[in-house]
Amino acid sequence: MAHAFVLIMAVMVFVNVLVYVCMHPILWFLRVPQEVMEGMRQYLVIIYAGLLASSLYNFFACLLRALGNSTVPLVFLAVSSVLNIGLDLLFVVGFHWGIRGAAAATVVSQYIAGIGILLYVVVSQSGRAAGATMKPQKSQQKGMLREGFDPVIMKEIITLSSLTCLQQSVMNFGILMVQGLVNSFGATTMAAFAAAVKIDTFAYLPVQDFGNAYSTFVAQNYGVKDYGRIQKGTKEAFAISIVFSIIISILVCTFAASLMEIFVKAQETAVIACGVQYLRIEGSFYCGIGCLFLLYGYYRAINKAQMSVVLTVISLGLRVVLAYILSVPLKAPGIWVAIVNHKNLKEI
Questions:
Q1: Do 134 and 214 fall within a single domain?
Q2: Alpha carbons 251 and 78: distance in angstroms, whole number
Q3: Who has the most CB within 10 Å: 245, 275, 298, 332?
Q4: 172 and 306 housed in the same domain
């Protein structure tokens, strides 16, 4: 636990410094329209400050889930989400801070979740016997300071995490390339995509968490070689994910316009129409996305993360190529179709 925490914090500091230093190249890579360039820069300057909070939350949330406690991370995430909405209204509507207010609301809510879950773990583990606590003992802390990292432990952590890190990095790099293409179609398409992606991400977040829970379930049973329980759990996980995805698809496709109006003023009809188009194309295929997250979770659980990396690299390459090809005759809708095709090809 101590080795992983120090490693994650070190990587976080490096990335945090890197994104601030590379602010202008990032904006150039994203092909941000000139009319929204300054607003984008203001948002990123503030939102990057939340990387530490996100790292804290994700580390301790994963730790608690590994111990079988998925309730507490969900509670802190729910509190953070509700607080984010409240602070958005306060900072943007009340204080008129605009873009900076939206970014500040996100960062503050992230720190509430990150610090809150950190304190929960520290308090809940304090007072336990040395053999029953996850908290590093003083002798262990002094040993690390005196002797440095244990290469065996560090190698194991890096081996387990490197492929997943590579997968996520490749995935998000592909997303950024598509984002740059979207931005090239102007501020209207960019605004529609930004709002629609928020709705899209929120819609399939539960099935993504199904995948995380399923991964933990498989890993625990794989460790004790209870393969029968894995088979039974797999059938139930896929059934739950598919049924839930169908329901969400129906809701998103039916109420796409109303959902867009949560983020966009009703008078901005062009933005809403573009966002509705995205949601109805993308929202029709949540079943595939749900199954995909379960497959990722399965390969991680049985220590074959390289399969997920291979699938991600191939599928994202197809996604970017298709997006650039289809956007020529179809314009923005071609990008939405490419996103759907990439997800279904990856699942196949």
A1: no
A2: 21
A3: 275
A4: yes
Helix/strand/coil for 174: helix
- Decide: 204 and 245 in contact? Cβ < 8 Å: yes
- Which of residues 114, 149, 184 is at a domain's end? 149
Q: What does the pLDDT average to over 257-265? A: 91
Q: What is the mean pLDDT of residues 38-50?
A: 95
Do 315 and 254 share a structural domain? yes
Encoded tokens for 229: 């329980």
203 contacts 289 by C-beta, under 8 angstroms = no
The tokens for 201 are 């991400």
> Closest by alpha carbon to 82, among 112, 52, 59?
112
- Both 193 and 144 in a single domain? no
Q: Which of 149, 174, 208 is the last residue of a domain?
A: 149
Q: Which domain holds residue 234?
A: 151-348
d(CA 170, CA 12): 18
Q: pTM of the predicted model, to two decimals?
A: 0.71
Q: 217: pLDDT confidence band, cut at 50, 70 and 90?
A: very high
Cα–Cα distance measured from residue 55 to residue 65, given in angstroms and rounded to the nearest whole number: 15
Does position 66 have pLDDT exceeding 80, yes or no? yes
Q: How far apart are CA 176 and CA 170, in angstroms?
A: 10
Q: Which amino acid is at 200?
A: D
Residue the block writes with tokens 């968490």: 209
What CA–CA distance (Å, rounded) separates 104 from 87?
Answer: 8
Angle at 105 between CA 186 and CA 99, to 5 degrees: 30
Q: What pLDDT does residue 345 have?
A: 42
Residue 345 vs residue 153, higher pLDDT: 153
